[in-house]
From TrEMBL:
Record flagged with keyword Ion transport: no
Cofactor(s) the protein requires to work: heme b; Ca(2+)
Cell membrane in keyword set: no
Gene Ontology terms for molecular function: heme binding; lactoperoxidase activity; metal ion binding
Note describing how the cofactor binds: Binds 1 heme b (iron(II)-protoporphyrin IX) group per subunit. Binds 2 calcium ions per subunit.
Organism of provenance: Salix dunnii
GO cellular component: extracellular region
Keywords (A to Z) from UniProt: Calcium, Disulfide bond, Heme, Hydrogen peroxide, Iron, Metal-binding, Oxidoreductase, Peroxidase, Secreted, Signal
Subcellular localization: Secreted
Residue positions binding Ca(2+) 2: 194, 246, 249, 254
Its biological purpose: Removal of H(2)O(2), oxidation of toxic reductants, biosynthesis and degradation of lignin, suberization, auxin catabolism, response to environmental stresses such as wounding, pathogen attack and oxidative stress. These functions might be dependent on each isozyme/isoform in each plant tissue.
CDD domains to which the protein is assigned, alphabetical: secretory_peroxidase
GO terms classed as biological process: hydrogen peroxide catabolic process; response to oxidative stress
Name of the protein in its database record: Peroxidase
Amino acid sequence: MASPGHNLLVLLLFFIFFPCSNSKLSVDYYNKTCPQFASIMEQIVSDKQIASPTTAAGVLRLFFHDCMVEGCDGSLLITSTSFNRAERDADIDQSIPGDAFDLVTRAKTALELQCPGIVSCADILATAARNLVTMVGGPYYHVRLGRKDGLVSNASLVQGNIAQPTMPLSDIISLFESKGFSVQEMVALVGAHTIGFSHCKEFSHRLFNFSKTSKTDPAYYPKYAEGLRKLCANYTKDPTMSAYNDVMTPGKFDNMYYKNLQRGLGLLATDQALSVDRRTKPYVDLYAANETAFFEAFAHAMEKVSIYKIKNGKKGEVRHRCDQFNAAKND
């Protein structure tokens, strides 16, 4: 029978030669190979957000949608070719603002000039999302670095991995749980709706011919519903028409989103459902009353999202361009 000491030695050797994927990530990953990384990211992000204030919400959505499909590997940044319909052309991703992709492109260009072939697009996106959350008033959280960029991007992989605005809440909870996130973490992450906007088509069913007894969803605060009906009156002719997710403080990352839910000011059906379902209502009430609790929960959940199914080693690469795989240059 092997001695305890022998077993311990075997266990240590296992972790040395077969380290877990996340152990290769660190906040100071680029300190020696690209010491300008943090300052370049800070400058690019700041300039872009000042020039285009909707960038923060767009990048946050881009980051989350990227991570939920095959992990945080920059696969959503890839453009389609005649041989492959990439993730960004899936229906739910087509509404992600161009400013979000533009920021990543600008950061990658600047970093390639200083540190060619070193910084991954996945790390750029994760860092940009964190910096922008902080810049618009949200919490700071640590982003561990060292992700590789994924080698696959296919629109067919998106369906079933990202919550739709018309999905029943039970399905959304199941989706998050399948990826290892608790109900509380889900409610905290959805708090990202405190910034940004949604297109009218995503909530029009709540405004027009909702039921035989009510034109609009009675869960809406009446005056809010009236304003949305006017705003979205011509949404079928103009699909770009949209409304702020948080009607009170749309450009500030705060806990107003949860307060809005308590007042019937939740824009999407999935938003409003959080405030009444027994599984989610306690967290909505907690975060509405305590912004510090929301910020702490959001920061923790985002750190967890940022390492979801990350790629390293031969499972990924550091792309030369964020919108195409390196192999494309050799075809």
